[in-house]
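Morning, I've got a small favour to ask if you have a moment. It would help a lot if you went through both lines with me. I owe you a coffee for this, so here goes:
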Amino acid sequence: MSSNIVYIVVRPTAAPPKTTLHTLYQLHASRTPITVLTAYDYPTARACSAHPVDITLVGDSLAQVALGLPSTTHLTLDALIHHTAAVARGTTSPFLIADMPFGSYHTDVPSALANAVRIVREGSADAVKLEGSSPLVRSVVRALADAGIPPVAHLGLLPQRVAAMGGYRVQGRTAADARPIIRDARLLQAAGAVALVLEAVPAALAAYITASLRIPTIGIGAGPHTSGQVLVWDDVMATWEGHKAKFVRRFADVGAEVGRGVAGYVDAVRRREFPGEKEGYAMRPGEWEKLMQMEGSEGQSAAYKYLRDRLIQLRNSPGGGSSQITRRHIT
């Protein structure tokens, strides 16, 4: 007798390799759009790793969307490091960038470098991002590059300077306003920036800057022709209830699902439908009776009254409820 035996070999799906600067430059060279999402905690980092984006950004927008602060300028360095470390623990493949908070690179180069070192050492970031192109900022970019900390630049709308810029306004709409952005992009690249975020600038200007640089550009409200795109997690998932910028697209309605989940839980508890029998634990057979004997008449009387009242509540509740409490417990 002969038989045919078929062997099936199941190989586990390999985890995506860690994204590095080299990976990002390869994507840029091949004109493959780079994907970036913000992440502020371990669960969002896990999601970004499970459906791997190329870059996770611990943006200073966490001040508003995660901490309830009025603006990004209220975010402290310690808070940023705390959240970056949480994201790092949940990150497998994405390249991890952390924003340098307002005030952490605005005084002098040595203190800015020391703050960046903390973000990398304590927060486990792969790179840091800083806004603007003042002489001091370019000096900081140069010092970071020299120290081996990849600096990511940010031009266009600068959230940390929104008060000085007259609000959240599109930048570079006129030729006179566009020229300094082009100049600053080239200066930052020369200083050692490894990538450039362009926020709220006309699409044509972003495309021109992208074509003018060797480093990749990441757009947010900058049209489709940058090297990649970034959006805030809470905008993508519709969990942010504040202002919705024109450039935001909702890709899921997590906010509505969260609302349904909370309302459903509250309703189930109020109706005593949760927890049910499957979600509870029972004593071993005969142990309840032993316990009541140990408690004596006083304990039995208190237990009788509680369980009797509980059974009446269950009978009178909508749907009758569900419980392990039965008549034998009170007789």
